[in-house]
Amino acid sequence: MKTMLIATTALASLVSTSAAFAHASFANPPTAVGAYVAATLQVPHGCDGMATNEVQIKLPEGFISAKPQPKAGWEIEVISGDYQNSYDNHGEAVTSGPVEIRFKNGNLPDEFYDTFTIYGKVAAADPETGLAFPTVQLCGTDATVAWTDIAAAGQDPHDLKSPAPVLKISATEGADEHAGHGAPATGAHAGHDAHAGHGDHAAAVNPGGFDTVTLGDLELSGGFTKAMLPGQPVGGGFITITNKGAEDDVLVSATSPNAGEVQLHEMAMVNDVMKMRQLPDGIKVPAGQSVELKPGGLHLMFFKISEPFRDGATVPVTLTFQKAGSVDVVLPIGPARSN
User: Fold this and answer.
1) Distance between CA 189 and CA 102 in Å, rounded?
2) Cα–Cα distance between 224 and 128 in angstroms, integer?
3) What is the pLDDT, as a whole number, of residue 91?
4) 8 Å CB contact between 274 and 104
5) Distances (CA, A) of 142 to 48, 57, 183, 223
């Protein structure tokens, strides 16, 4: 398997006393083969009292076309490689895709619990063993908790010291692969667009109708967002910013009454690894140039949304620039999918 990996520091594996009694596990009910699922990993503690800063999840063979759900306060790396087998997905043969997801540079204190969600298709699995997702928590620079032991055929996973989280598989194949079998109660189709704003190219269609706005030397055009499906937790926002002045400027923040938090995000390939991260220092808009916030690249990310974005409606947003100041824009909402 050709896997594109990033270098990490070799760390000693330390398993806390609490780890023996609180394993990382999935919150999902049994999922049918052929179904899509928002696999929700529960991480109950850190490493010997230390906060978890990174969660590395290896995806098992048979779990294909994976997409991580954006998580406020965490960067995401998607490591891709070849599958051992070929799988059918919407009538197309799929032979490669994400093989590991890493939630990075976050902070989960030992006394708290949190979840990490990856959406994908269960293309092949054994109902008797389920799908094991070897998972490693990194805490600081010198501690880890590794949930990587996989039960052999006929072995009770409870006998393992550090069992890998297992997604349970039902004996019945999915009659409708979009039925969302095993997805959390937030919505059966949530996973299709839970990754909104991060590389969902085909689904993000500009509906038009955005009125160009001028703020000093800045011109804002082509703004839009897209409708959200039931249960979708986040939304993406896109706009083109043209700096007609002689000085650089920086988009430093964004707010909206429709969301509890709006972050500036980037999705980019770095050394063959797809990196998705927040940009706390803002987005630079060089003098005499245009910067396009678009799917698969720079974009706005709406969290804690009060009401799902609906096709045909609008989302008010206030953009604040380092030099030009603040400006109110209204993003028209386009369809959830192009088809």
Assistant:
1) 23
2) 46
3) 82
4) no
5) 11, 19, 35, 45
Distances (CA, A) of 226 to 74, 109, 319, 330, 331: 23, 34, 18, 13, 9
Q: What is the pLDDT of residues 224-260, one digit of tens each?
A: 999 887 666 788 999 999 999 999 999 999 999 999 9
Reduced to 3 states (helix: H, G, I; strand: E, B; else coil), residue 160 is coil
Residue 20: pLDDT above 80?
no
Residue 114 above 90 pLDDT? yes
**Per-residue pLDDT tens over the stretch 30-62:** 999 999 999 999 999 888 889 999 999 999 999
The residue-averaged pLDDT of 198-216 equals 75
Q: Which amino acid is at 31?
A: T
Q: Is 42 helix (H, G, I), strand (E, B) or coil?
A: strand
HEC string for 258-310 = CEEEEEEEEEEEECCEEEEEECCCCEEECCCCEEEECCCCCEEEEEEECCCCC
| Helix, coil or strand: residue 79 | strand
What's at 118, amino acid-wise? I
| Max CA separation in the chain (angstroms) | 70
Distance between CA atoms of residues 323 and 222, nearest Å: 22
Q: Find all residues with CB under 8 Å of 107, minimum gap 6, and list them.
A: 51, 52, 53, 73
Amino acid at 243: N
| E-assigned strand segments in 105-246 | 114-122, 131-132, 135-139, 143-147, 166-167, 213-215, 218-226, 235-243
